[in-house]
Fold each of these.
Amino acid sequence: MMDTSVIEIRRLPNYQLVSTTDFFFPLVDDPFLMGRIACANVLSDMYSEGVTEVDNLLMILAASIDMPPNCRDIVTWKMIEGFRSLAEEAGSSVTGGQSIYNPWPIIGGTAMSVVPKERVLMPTGAIEGDVLVLTKPIGTQVAVNAFQWIKIDARWSRISDVVSREQLERAFDISAMSMERLNRTAAELMWKHGAHSATDVTGFGILGHAEALARNQRESVSFVIHTLPVIRGMAVVDAKLQNLFSLVKGRSAETSGGLLICLPKENVGAFCSEIYEAEGWPAFVVGTVVGGDRSASIAADVEIKEL
């Protein structure tokens, strides 16, 4: 399974059409921010294949029939504005799409690009000795849900003894900034530093996506994740909830998560330094590629690195 569809173009034999589709229900209250997160999430599939220039975006949109009409209009247009604003920052544009009415709002899209064959990084080339690098922290699902629980006494009481409101507000802010941040710089640096394979970490959690990526490899290799970079306090919250989200097991869903990249060991330091210089956000060494059976696992002594 790949993050995108990659097909040959019969009339352009040296090019391929790369495309992807993704959409979901809102997970934050701010509709403008939600539009930006949705756009970043769609584009991440393209970036994971090394496609840094996206020719076209189509928007998928549902306006809520359960909202009062004046609220529905404001929310819908703010989601559209947010999506378009990040598309422009990514050097792309929204040229059309499809909209419907639905009980819940929905936002997402389809991204497409015609790319020279040599500029598509197929997710198949990891080799033994590669290092696994992740470009965003995990824990967004825990942070977003726990932040909403502040307003619900029965749920807040379940976690209030292990986390403060201020800590949750910080965790939510970090999550929001992370989710709306493009993985475009990481995709550009993958080419510069000779990445062998990559995927983006979203709905199946870091381990789920590592497993899918490992199954795609040509070589008989396995991925071992030895470090989990987690938004501060979220591992404790999940533990208090008896691992409701399975965060430290690597199964907690992420939205618009980071790229999980297989890099040559000698290039990891430069990659991490350059992405921090460009964006002010760190990338994390999270694991290694070893000889194996195309599987992925979390090390028994995995380190939880809070930030």
Amino acid sequence: PAPLCQAHRRPTQHHHPFLIIGLRPAGHFSCVCGSIMSEKTVLCFGDSNTWGQVPGSQDRYPYGVRWPGRLQALLGEEYRVVEDGLSGRTTLHDDVTGPADGAYSCNGRPQLNTALHAHKPLHAVVLFLGVNDLKQPGVSPGRVAYANQILVQDIRRAAVGKDGQPPRIVLVAPVAVVETPTNLAWGFGGTAGPSREVPAALQQTAAAVGVGCFDLSQQAVASPLDGVHIDANGHAALASGIAGILKTPA
């Protein structure tokens, strides 16, 4: 059913000029009465699993299969889901072993700040980062969690929520890496064990700083085709989990 504004709980015959010509302002949606209401924008910021890489290939899942697209369908017209996924992206490291090969930066921290201001005001930010951090020398699961905490602090300081308030924040704990010849070539050697410890570290950090956390490792596994990326079922599970969190009052 079409969403209703606060002033109207049943359809009326009133119309808004934007509806008459079939348009609506960006960042808004329409009540059945014709009034224009602000959308709740959700920024999904992550790596290749947010970009939607098909396991075992360089292809990309269609929008309706990728978890941000599925999330949009689950949340409905009241929300606008923005996907910002980049292959090889880390929390705050320069990934020297990543797929960019110098073509672009994999450091998520400065990119996140740009994305926050590009899409504000934001209702929520979902961070799905950390696996690529483990490729960096000396990065432990605890350091992955701490790096996510730094990004949480950056988001709060940016004050990009409604009326300058911080948006809601949800961390995603990734699936464990399964070492394969494919991901060994991507620099994931030695990351399988540490990756299994990341979810607990992220959950502890999320609780400490007062943000949400969805443990994807309890709902999905990395595809055996490359041992890093989730399949279509994994995308569906992630979208469902995030939708459940966002629909629950903070």
